[in-house]
């Protein structure tokens, strides 16, 4: 009898504990997980998205994505001032700065605050925003279109999208672009060459075909990190030429080394100079004594094909 009484007491205590846990769970709603928040976001359930990401941002204040998506949700709920606050936090956390700034500008535009909108649009394009069509088609920015500042923003976004088509440094070697017949100093044709601009003008691609049957190609581009032009050449004999340099006194001068198939190396220098008559001189030199003396490896005159 005494044993049964003890069992009943334990059962009552267990029931009380379980009941308290159930009541606590009912009183304290479950904290949303990232997976749940993401599902709300993908389904465009903006009220649920906002609540979920508000909780996540509170417990993870450095979570830039949470702040960004909270801003998207608030924007779609037409809570523009609160959306701006969320996107500012995303931007401070370094989360997609260009897009965060662009979104802030959109919200300010909808609030009728044009100066603030242009301030953030400027910040967006300075951070690299390059979606020109998005700028032009976004209805949130419609009230900004008649302002001259808007065209300036569009132009900067175009430069961001295709810098090699707009910035002068990327056009320094354009005088070499074209289809050419190439001749030696005695007038003999050495071959033909075609230089084309590809990848939105960021690459000059050379296609050399020698009169004697040799061939080769080079890729030429401006390296903004080194602030140098780079040429990387490979020919049919497995020769490799790696050079870098810059425009000097109107001539493109590239220096490096010629690496032969057997591994032998020689210092190498190439100079391309546009002439007043529209031709281009290509002078290629090499050195076998560490640069003390140089010999002419190739001297070619480029004449545009008619």
Number of helices: 9
Radius of gyration: 33 Å
CATH uppermost class of the largest domain:
Mainly Alpha
The helix/strand order is HHHHHHHHHEEEEEEEEEE
Got a strand count?
10
> Strand portion, in percent?
25-35%
CATH topology of the largest domain: Serine Threonine Protein Phosphatase 5, Tetratricopeptide repeat
Mean pLDDT, rounded to whole units?
92
Second rung of CATH, namely the architecture of the largest domain = Alpha Horseshoe
Structure in a nutshell:
With 306 residues, this protein is an alpha+beta fold. The protein contains 9 helices and 10 strands. The protein folds into 2 domains: 7-163, Tetratricopeptide repeat domain (Serine Threonine Protein Phosphatase 5, Tetratricopeptide repeat), CATH 1.25.40; 169-304, Calycin beta-barrel core domain (Lipocalin).
Can you offer a commentary on this structure?
With 306 residues, the protein is of the alpha+beta class. The protein folds into two domains: 7-163, Tetratricopeptide repeat domain (Serine Threonine Protein Phosphatase 5, Tetratricopeptide repeat, Alpha Horseshoe), CATH 1.25.40; 169-304, Calycin beta-barrel core domain (Lipocalin, Beta Barrel), CATH 2.40.128. Helices cover 40% and strands 28% of the residues. The chain has nine helices and ten strands. The chain has helices at 2-27, 34-42, 46-59, 64-76, 80-92, 97-110, 114-126, 132-137, 148-161, and strands spanning 178-183, 189-198, 203-210, 215-223, 228-235, 240-248, 251-259, 265-274, 280-287, 295-304. It has a ten-stranded antiparallel barrel. A hairpin with a 4-residue loop joins strand 2 and strand 3 (203-210). The longest helix has 26 residues, at 2-27. Residues 8-18 and 20-29 have low confidence and may be disordered.
């Amino acid at each position: 009898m005494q044993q049964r009484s003890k069992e009943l007491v334990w059962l009552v205590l267990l029931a009380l504990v379980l009941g308290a846990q159930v009541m606590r769970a009912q009183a304290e709603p479950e904290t949303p997980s990232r997976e749940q928040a993401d599902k709300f976001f993908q389904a465009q359930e903006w009220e649920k998205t906002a609540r979920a990401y508000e909780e996540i941002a509170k417990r993870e204040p450095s979570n830039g994505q949470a702040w960004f998506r909270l801003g998207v949700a608030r924007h779609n709920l037409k809570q523009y001032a609160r959306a701006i606050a969320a996107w500012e936090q995303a931007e401070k956390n370094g989360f997609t700065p260009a897009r965060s700034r662009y979104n802030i500008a959109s919200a300010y535009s909808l609030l009728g605050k044009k100066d603030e909108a242009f301030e953030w649009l400027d910040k967006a394009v300075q951070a690299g925003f390059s979606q020109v069509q998005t700028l032009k088609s976004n209805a949130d920015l419609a009230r900004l279109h008649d302002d001259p500042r808007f065209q300036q923003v569009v132009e900067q976004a175009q430069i961001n999208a295709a810098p090699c088509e707009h910035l002068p440094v990327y056009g320094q070697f354009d005088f070499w672009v074209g289809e050419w017949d190439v001749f030696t100093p005695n007038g003999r044709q050495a071959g033909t060459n075609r230089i084309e601009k590809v990848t939105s003008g960021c690459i000059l691609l050379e296609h050399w075909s020698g009169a004697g049957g040799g061939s080769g190609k080079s890729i030429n581009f401006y390296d903004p990190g080194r602030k140098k032009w780079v040429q990387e050449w490979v020919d049919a004999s497995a020769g490799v030429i790696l050079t870098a340099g810059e425009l000097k006194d109107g001539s493109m001068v590239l220096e490096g080394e010629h690496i032969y198939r057997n591994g032998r190396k020689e210092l190498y220098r190439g100079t391309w100079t546009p002439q007043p008559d529209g031709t281009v001189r290509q002078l290629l030199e090499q050195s076998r004594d560490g640069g003390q003396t140089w010999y002419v490896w190739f001297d070619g005159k480029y004449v545009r094909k008619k």
